[in-house]
Amino acid sequence: MVRVEGRRVVVLDGRWSRYCLPHSNHSEHNAVSSTHNDADVLHSDVLRVIAKAAQDKKRLPPKEAERIILELCRGCWLRSNELAQLMARKSGGLRERFLNPVVARGMLRLRYPNTPNHSGQAYTAVIPEEGVA
């Protein structure tokens, strides 16, 4: 069951509850290299619902694919293989065709910006107030 309370999404999964909170810079657990930001993304009902359109269509218009990627990456870090699995795509193609261009336009941020080929590289959406206007 998914429930929205204010700005947070609460996913009730059996006995356990999972929360996806809005991004905040006030916690040591929100550091760029923090592993505490990673949820069990492939089992998140919310992310699966967002990615459903990509899973249902073999070919998506580029703007639609970018919109889905940005929505999936809003408020959390996702690796290219996690995005690929959620969207039922190949990781390499997704990275070359969509992720790299969206990063270049400043709409996605890299977890390790100084090491683009880092094995733990992940992406998060740039929140409008964080971006350069």
List the helices and strands and how they pair.
Blueprint: E1 2-5, E2 8-13, E3 16-20, H1 45-56, H2 62-72, E4 78-79, H3 80-87, H4 91-104, E5 108-110, E6 122-125
Antiparallel strand pairs: 1-2, 2-3, 4-6, 5-6
Helix pairs in contact: 1-2, 3-4
Folded structure, characterized:
The protein has 133 residues and is of the alpha+beta class. It has a domain at 37-125: Arc Repressor Mutant, subunit A (Orthogonal Bundle). It is built from 4 helices and 6 strands; from the N terminus they run E-E-E-H-H-E-H-H-E-E. A 3-stranded antiparallel sheet has the order 1-2-3, with no helix packed on it. Strands 4-6-5 form a 3-stranded antiparallel sheet. Strand 1 (2-5) and strand 2 (8-13) form a beta hairpin. The longest helix is centred in the last third of the chain and has 14 residues, at 91-104. The N and C termini lie far apart (37 Å).
Distance between the termini: 37 Å
| Extended strand count | 6
User: Kindly state the mean pLDDT as a whole number?
Assistant: 77
The dominant shape is globular
Largest sheet: 3 strands, antiparallel
CATH class category name of the domain at 37-125: Mainly Alpha
The CATH architecture category of the domain at 37-125 equals Orthogonal Bundle
Strand order of the largest sheet: 1-2-3
Fraction of residues in H or I helices = 25-40%
Structural class: alpha+beta
* CATH fold descriptor of the domain at 37-125: Arc Repressor Mutant, subunit A
* Topology as a string of helices (H) and strands (E): EEEHHEHHEE
